[in-house]
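lol so apparently i was supposed to do this last week
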Amino acid sequence: MQQQFIPSLMGIEEEQSSDPPPSTLRVEEPPSAPVQEQVTKSKALLQWNDWRWQIRNRIRTLQDLSSYVPGLSNSENLHAVIAKYPMAITPYYASLIRRIDFSDPVFRMSVPNPQEMCDPPCLSEDPLEEHEDMPVPGLIHRYRDRALVIATTTCSMYCRHCTRKRIAGTRESSISPRRLAQVVEYLRATPEISDVIISGGDPLTMSDAMIESVLSAIRSVPSVQIIRIGTRVPVVLPMRITDELVQMLRKYHPLWINTHFNHPNELTPESAAACTKLADAGIPLGNQSVLLRGVNDQPQIIEQLCRGLVRIRVRPYYLYQCDLVRGVEHFRTSVRAGIEIMEYLRGRVSGLAIPTFVVDAPHGGGKIPVLPNYVVSMSPTHTVLRNYEGLLVNYPEPGVETAADEFTEQIGTPGVWELSSGRASVILPAKTQRGQRREKLRPKRNVGSTAFLFDA
Ligand code: SF4
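anyway here it is w/ iron/sulfur cluster bound
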């Protein structure tokens, strides 16, 4: 069902509900509009590009939502969902919706779903047990050298798959000076912490002054070397990345930012411009995606996303398996789906564009990287490895002096044992693109007595 979603955005304005849509909405302009109309449009565009206007005009209630999704507002279930897990969608993010149903990735990540109320017993409010690792309120100390500060409970958009659904948006507030002082005191008393992540909620929804007070307080701790900010603002509120904000941020280097793109539809000229501003200020950008059923659980979608991220100078950092958090069961995929995506990416895209697939372990176990199995066998002399094409090759351990060629006379049908014992060095899949390229380059090439072809 393809519907025109964008024009109805204007229905949620607090101010000029009669304003025509801003030009960012890509509405065709009449060729000879009167001057007054142009002025009105310019004002609308200014509003649209004002991040505070975007926050003031978030879709927050079922009434707001009903102007886009007829029928949903009458759902009793939806009232309960929003009462439990607040809703907020910036007009900008809403403008990225292409279909008004849960098959649209942006719609699915932003619009409340009655399925959020279905919780199997394996889910919990705080599956990572962050509260158990909080020595002072608002600071999570899990890994030895890192700490995470929850600077705010506010986000511009409340992602339906959020791992901190228990706090995000339940009360929109930011860290108090007293709490911040406690955090700093703990950091000073714990010098092994050298890397502090400012998170939330979304810290970049705070005012510049507030962000700076948090940054300067943390930077005042001599043992803190790196500060990182976790934010979804470049994705859901890119106009928040103002020149003033960037000028302020660059005073606190080394500063890194991790953002949270999940789908190629989130890669827009606006989000690219926001990332460019940050990158130009010398802030390295990483991306933490979450693997979400019905959003990005297809290898081709992740490939497109990762290629797009690298193009806008954002390094794909993590691909998270969905946490066992209440309210997200309908987003969960199998771990196997993630492994298949990683198998697909390797060899197809540059390593620069391949994130690490991780399961954030329940009970606060931390991130566990999960990979397809590339180590096939190990012997005292050789490790047998598999590449993305299915090629099997041995890697001789140090001190192995026997060359594979010495054994070649004895080999019948090769297998992994021939590789791990050093009797063969490689088993090649036949007819790979790479093999065909090589054959063209070296037509008379002898694959060698230690190489065996098999049909992949
Ligand atoms: S922006 Fe981050 S903290 Fe906020 S709702 Fe989305 S995932 Fe959760």
